[in-house]
Specification:
Bound molecules: adenosine-3',5'-cyclic-monophosphate
Number of strands: 4
Distance between the termini: 15 Å
Helix content: 25-40%
Shape: globular
Radius of gyration: 14 Å
Order of helices and strands: EHHEHHEHHEH
Structural class: alpha+beta
Number of helices: 7
Length: 142
């Protein structure tokens, strides 16, 4: 399996609940390494740029408002099959559909306050990583 990088964001709801450590533990215990972190508080405009792909969808404005409602922890995860593995650990976007034991099943309250974001492809991971990080911010273990 290829070693990949992917972007994870711990969203304002999960940062506010103080479950950052529990979420990172799940990544590390499943073979992913944190190679860059950034705790930041996005403006609504910045959240809008990050989620530009969703512009025009009915949930876009609520998504931007929620993502700018408090601090988020953006992280780059590295490991074998990191994109798919991260999404498996996250669970379905809607926590009502998330498999038991996933991050969203355990920590998400709604489809908006759904604890974490993860890149959906290696191509989008590269774009999303460059939104938050410069190459010099990332420190690969490999
Ligand atoms: P995320 O993985 O961060 O990507 C976009 C976010 O939009 C998603 O998680 C949800 O929090 C939010 N969202 C709200 N409604 C929907 C919807 N109907 N479909 C997809 N995403 C939604």
């Amino acid at each position: 399996m290829p070693v990949q990088r992917t972007l994870s964001i711990i969203k304002p709801d999960a940062v506010g609940k103080n479950v950052v450590g529990d979420i990172i533990r799940r990544f590390e215990e499943n073979g992913l390494s944190v190679i860059g972190t950034r705790l930041t508080h996005l403006s609504a405009a910045e959240a809008g740029r990050f989620y530009a792909v969703h512009e025009g969808r009915p949930f876009y404005n609520d998504l931007c408002a929620f993502m700018s409602s408090g601090p988020v922890l953006a992280m780059v995860l590295e490991g074998q099959n990191a994109v798919v593995l991260n999404r498996q650990l996250m669970g379905a976007t809607n926590p009502k559909e998330a498999e038991a034991g996933t991050i969203r099943a355990d920590h998400a309250d709604s489809i908006d306050a759904n604890a974490v974001h993860g890149s959906d492809s290696e191509e989008n991971a590269a774009i999303e990583i460059s939104f938050f990080f410069a190459a010099l911010d990332l420190h690969s273990r490999g």
